[in-house]
Amino acid sequence: MKLKMFDPPGHLPDFVGIPGQLQQWSKAISGWIDGAIQIEQGRLKDFPKAQVQFFNATETDPAGLSLDQDIVWNAFPRTLVLGYGKAKAYPTSEQLFSLTAPRPGLPTAPPFYVDPPGTTMWSDLLYRPLDEYCEFRVERHPDTHKIIRITFTSEPPEYWQALHGDELQDANGNFAYKFTGDKKKMLDLYHQYVSTKVKLGDLECKHEYYYMVTDANGKPVLGPDGKQQKQVVFRKGDYNPYNVWNSTKGIMHLSQPNNFVQAEIQLAADATILRHKNGRAVVQADALVCCSGYGGTSRSSDPTIGASVNDLARLGAWVTIKNPIGLYMHDLNTEGFTKPNGEQIDPKEYFKVLRGDEAGHMIERAVFEVPEKEGFTVSDLKIAGVPITWGGQVAEHINISITGTGVNPRYFNNPMLPCATFCCIDTDVSIALTRVINNGDPIPEGYQRAFLHEQGTFASQASKPTLLQTAAKEVYHEVSGIPRHKRR
Amino acid sequence: MNDILTTATENSQPKTYTAMSRLTGPVNAGAPIEPVLDIHDIQGNVIPGFNKPHQYVLCFKMEDARLGKKFLKEILPHISTLEEVLAFRRLYRARKKRLGHKPEEELSATWLNIAFSYECTTRLTSTAATFESEAFRINLEARSPLLGDPISPDNEGSPENWIVGSKDKVPDIFVIIGGDRQDQLAEKVDFVKKQAAKLKLHCIYDEEMNTIERDGVTGLEHFGFKDGISQPGVRGRISNLQGDFLQERYVDENVLPDSLLYGYPGQFLSWPGEFVFGYPGQTLDPLIAGPIKTEGPDWTKNGSFMVFRRYKQDVKLFWKYMLETSGKLAKEDNFTNMSPQKLAAMLVGRWPGGAPFAREQDNDDKALGADKMANNYFRYASDSCPVKMVNGYQDKYPQAKADPIGLTCPMTAHIRKVNTRDTSNDAGGTFASFQQRLLRRGLPYGPPLDNPLDPNSPDPANGNRGLIFLSYHASIENQFEFLRNRWMSNRFTPRSPSGDDIVIGLNGNVGQDSVRKAMVFDNDTKAVGLSTGDQWITPTGGGYFFCPSLSAIEHVLAADTI
Ligand code: HEM
Questions:
Q1: First-to-last CA distance in chain B?
Q2: pTM score, two decimals?
Q3: Protein residue with its CA nearest to atom 6 in ligand 1
Q4: Less crowded by CB within 10 Å, the N or C end of chain B?
Q5: What residue ranges do the domains of chain A occupy?
Q6: Who wins on pLDDT, A453 or B66?
């Protein structure tokens, strides 16, 4: 049976009662999936018999055995751990970064935005460098600096833009899905969860946010009028996901610019494309991220999501992300968390789920704090004998997840495409694969090419799949469905 | 049809590695340059491992640091190095091959290694204060809650009741001695005990360990499973010669990338810095060496952290569950030939004889279990197929099929909970398959039960049996504790759908009564839940130690600086 409609993340209830809101959300998710499928079709266009394995459950009902796979990863950013080591990763994870600043742990990655000449519009906006689809904010006592509470969220920004009644962009970055929204409801939620001091104006863009479009070499891209093209990101009056109550003064939803639902959908769709290198399937997760060009290479999440999806795709299955599509905290494991008296803590008392579906492992918002009756603080707790001094120490015991569904294995026998991108490493800088480069681009100085030869391929070649040697040239950045301003 | 994977056109001669082979792996263009290991400085149980059938653990309290230093000076010449253990192993193997049986009557050795607690190192040198490892500094008892250990004081497994490693029973010095022959071993143990006593090292715990052999299967642990099969391969050379690798490589050099990734087929090679300080560790590309791994004091070069845990095993209780539950599954669900052994094999991930469940689901193929060229060769993410090998070996056993969801070999199986091999996991990609690895050097203590499946089988030892678990690595936190806490005791990692490590996991989560839950699929891909609160494993002690290089012992720990 086809799915009737896509539900809001974690079945969050706020859209209920807003005219057309639930339908529009479903339409947007459906549109993002279709946009992603279209992009994959483009990749397979030289092979008429090939069919995209990623499917839209509201439009396609592939009959057959259906298997769910929870894809699980750790909440604490591996990017920071690989880039700085644990000791420095903890404090870095609690800092905020300007959208125009160099990206922590990713020395060769360009900043998310460049201010248009004469403005500081993006420099003024701050985000959390927590790129595993889970973000947290640590509140400390102003005098003792002891941790009072840690608030976690996995709510995507799109949900809040929709609640505000904005128009969301499609896979190509065009404004396409206009929501009714309910500003009052949104403000009430901010009052309930962040602060009673929040005013609607604090949450809205006071002016247009845009950037001037450049090509891969940084040269201006001209529009039909002969002037440099301008890409609008937020219109004046739109909801501002980087507002102060979701950055310096509070936390309401995800803010790291790659943490959003559309990115998750595109990544899963991209990962259904089979890849080969010199005739052998590329399956090793890290090599595949480099070869396919999806996602962030140094995260825990993206290589694992991609490889898990690709595993299902190589079985010849239809693949999709299970409804409701969102990003979720799955669970917190408190084994080893002890009180000052040495007793283990009971997670039910210390980790309070405020939004989302706890039983269904779709947690959207949760708070870690000591119950008042205990009379001590989070910093008085220990994990394996070590006092909690950073939010990251708790975050690293949280699992984040999405659920992939594979249907009717062995249905597809799709061709394998050659690699679209590659990676390199400078071990003096980091042990991570720090950058995905378009085929043909030069390697930055000091870097060596990763996964040389066929080193990223572990699969056997028992069956004889079709290998496309000269597939449609994939210019990764041009065909990626992620709106340009949100690319990693 | 040629489904043997090779890109070679010419047919190279099969070769065998002998005791004197100095070219033990490919040196082709793509092969990374591997560091030369200080083979005379690294203790031999770290690499390549004593691997002796009879071993003995001695734990001491050091009363006086000055006398302790004297003891170290005396014991120093008795400490066995990587070089000696490796040379002996290669000779032993060559001799065994020609004889057709074990040569222990004519060829035997007794090895000794030593390790120190943090406390102890600080008494022997002021430089120990710069150790960074939090776990090492605060030691096992303080870390125990993280490891699923029971906390209730009336549980035998709570630190309260440990035989060694808690309160005033925390050892300063850990000595392990291994031998081919029990008489020679006993002699050495006696010697060490006497020297120690003279110098006021008080023996607070000692235990004998013996390998178990049954029905022709060697290297069993008490539940009856062949252990010590899967170990990470350690990269590195033993001399300046190109291709003079510590770990022999068996895949033909033309089979890329396998020949560069594996020692034995299926055995991923890791950079030595993940196990011994002073060498490069991993990067996200397994063939690119990372920065040199270091830890605190300079003298940690060529040393490793060591975890010692004494796990008591309740063998009867384990098999009682397998008997009852397999009977229930046979009745209620659709499994082919369900039996206690099969259920246990599903939950361990290997048959008692060692055959991987991923390759063989119907019977305990003992030949496969014993065959080093095949018993560790399987993947979970995609089909495996035979590869061309340097020695002309042909793998005739059934190959493993892609099983990313665990429909065949359950994700809850012990070996899938501690090594995800080629599948991605919650820690990101497959990095953990190279970095979160252990050099396991454990051996059983206590006499085996004659007939584990018979609840009435007499047990003169009264349940006193289990595993002396030993592991060596560069990080206690990121290797041993990671596996124990982040994977074995977590129902959802490293991959889902999963469950706890029902066999070895302990589940120390509050409110869960130590109940472990697991999930397996039957032939109709129906998910079948399993659960038990039985305490099959009881931790009864242990400790965190540092196993230094010989030069560090000589020039720092034994040196007269105080
Ligand atoms: C009484 C306790 C334990 C018993 C009886 C036991 C038993 C086994 C057995 C039968 C195997 C399969 C043989 C092999 O692949 O070598 C195995 C593998 C393994 N065990 Fe355990 N084990 C115990 C505790 C632990 C603990 C505490 C850890 C880690 C913290 C651990 C880590 C491993 C690893 C890493 C492997 C190799 C898996 C692979 O690479 O496929 N084991 N164990």
A1: 72
A2: 0.95
A3: B504
A4: N
A5: 420-486
A6: B66
